[in-house]
């Protein structure tokens, strides 16, 4: 068991993190537990959460607004990287974890704590993300993980909390585990553990079902500067406001639902439901703009590296050397990704219908088959001769 005297706990107000407070003090002998809650745009009223931590026995309960850094330092790089884990999930939960870990370390340093703690279980991804990020930023701090070691079921955990004055949740039998921030919503457990079963309608909150979406399509225009989204339908917006509006717009038209079997870091396949309307819309538009702006060889390599980038973020290696090296390459590719993309949203679908770039490589006078065609068709014969030379030599030796 890892020991510490003063500990900063990543606190959400849920059952596990609330029980961590008396458990750390009573069972592990921690003298002081300081709760830290992050406002990530989840929409919760955080003052009641802060008060709950104090009632549970925290010596201090701190709340900090981290919405702006979540967007500018984590979401925007993910959009520039087209960060989709296993080609589908835009990392909405994974991107928040290194940010929380970074603030935990800063609070621990400021308050003279010798340890940090979280309420993650031993089967999920978040334990890996927190542990690796904290170890990279502050290897001297102890990392306490009571939920990974206490061996209690959810019912046991609730009962332990009640014995220490922590009220039980409204529904002790709530089947879902939900994480929410400005970038999206993840839902797992309960009936979703059966991969054959269709997700019940009540698991969704940020997106309409396609059948309930408007009967008329809407056209959306997204503007980019150096790979970052900067405008929506011609209106310049700061990044936080832009993602908020993209969430509402795409979600209201039924776009942004993901139902996937994914591979967790610990080796388990897990059925996950995600709602990430804004991030999926912005990444789809960004991918399309890159098709106009990036050279073919650059784009081919970027597509390979952005998959690895997404894996590193998902696996908790945000602060690792390979991820930082990939950031340098990805950022270099974005300097000329400037322009706008038009997309049509209709009952759960998103279709690109136009793209325009200020530094685009699409040349109309070369692409056209009309009278404006400036391509020298006669040059193709020599090109094909040289291009196919090695193949013809091989064929002549293998009749």
Automatic annotation (TrEMBL):
One Gene Ontology molecular-function label: ATP binding
Chief localisation class: cytoplasm
Top-level taxonomic group: Bacteria
Binding site for L-citrulline: 89, 125, 129, 177, 186, 262, 274
Any one of the GO CC terms: cytoplasm
Residues reported in the UniProt entry to bind ATP: 10-18, 38, 119
GO BP: any one term: urea cycle
Catalytic activity: L-citrulline + L-aspartate + ATP = 2-(N(omega)-L-arginino)succinate + AMP + diphosphate + H(+)
Transmembrane segments: none
Residues in Arginosuccinate synthase-like N-terminal domain copies: 6-167
Record: residues binding L-aspartate: 121, 125-126
E.C. numbers: 6.3.4.5
Record-annotated Arginosuccinate synthase C-terminal domain positions: 176-393
InterPro entries, A to Z: Arginosuc_syn_C, Arginosuc_syn_N, Arginosuc_synth, Arginosuc_synth_CS, Arginosuc_synth_type_1_subfam, AS_cat/multimer_dom_body, Rossmann-like_a/b/a_fold
Pathway the protein takes part in: Amino-acid biosynthesis; L-arginine biosynthesis; L-arginine from L-ornithine and carbamoyl phosphate: step 2/3
Family that this chain belongs to: Belongs to the argininosuccinate synthase family. Type 1 subfamily.
Assembly behavior: Homotetramer.
Full protein name: Argininosuccinate synthase
Organism taxonomic ancestry: Bacteria, Bacillati, Cyanobacteriota, Cyanophyceae, Synechococcales
